[in-house]
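Practice problem: predict the structure.
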Amino acid sequence: MRFLSSMRLAIYLLLILGALAAAGSLIPQGQPPEFYRAYYGNLLGGLLLRFSLHDVYHSWWFITLGGLLGINLLVCTARRVRQVKGIRGWGSLLLHVGVLVILVGAILSGALKRSVYVEMGVGDSLDLTSYGFPNTTLTVENFKIEYYPNLEPKQYISYVTLKTAQGKQTKKEIKVNYPLEFVGFKIYQVSYGWLLKGQVVSSDKIIPFELPDKKSLPLDETKGIRLLFMFLPDYDEESERLETRSPLPRNPRLASALMKGHEILEITLIRPGETAKLKEYSVTFSGYRYYTGLEIKKDPALWILYAGFILLLGGLAMRYLFR
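Answer:
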């Protein structure tokens, strides 16, 4: 018991947890294993994965160290209860309890919170179960951009419907700096772009596609053959370059480039509903629509952190403002 109530133990645990938290902030968290091996090399990347430094806040040893610190604070607080005298003494005790609650909240938050980024086309619905939000569905009803007179973007707005596992539902708009907040969820407007739809026909296969702007469609991976797409919403026909006069879809074209590695074999422009030939490939441009990039967050333990800070502030006030 004396070991668990040691102030030296608390200091060591705080230093270790602080160092690990710093490592977690420097090392990208939650990426696929291939990311760490490609970015850090097989040896260092393998060590990061082996010691769970790619997911610090969910690792068993981080939670164990945090739990040990919590027990240490709990024992210290229990021993102080017997010695409490006056309002300042109770304030000191409340301060310790506040730190303990904040620690518990931080551990639970690290273990339970979820944050994912998704890109969804207008009209699409997405089951968020595989993203860590069971039986929750998000639907993008519409998306629009507000412009200044010079056609610089002023605001991005997604109109969404969120239905939770408890059957609760809300329909709201999400703007930049104005997230949707509903039963613990926060959904932020992050980005947007164009989805380009069509198909590619060769002698032996038909390849349908719906890809974001400036993405590639592999055609023959053994030869490095691919199609690179770029959307021009308001193509300037008087220009000799691939340029758009405005961000509005007034004269849309799909620029399709047949690539071999980094070499351009052939390039053409296609109107919506039309088909063009690039060597042995026929490319049809069916249409386009907006997609919206949304960040979805949920932290069930956030209220515990708030409660801990309230207790901490109350303890500080009682300890230093009252005589």
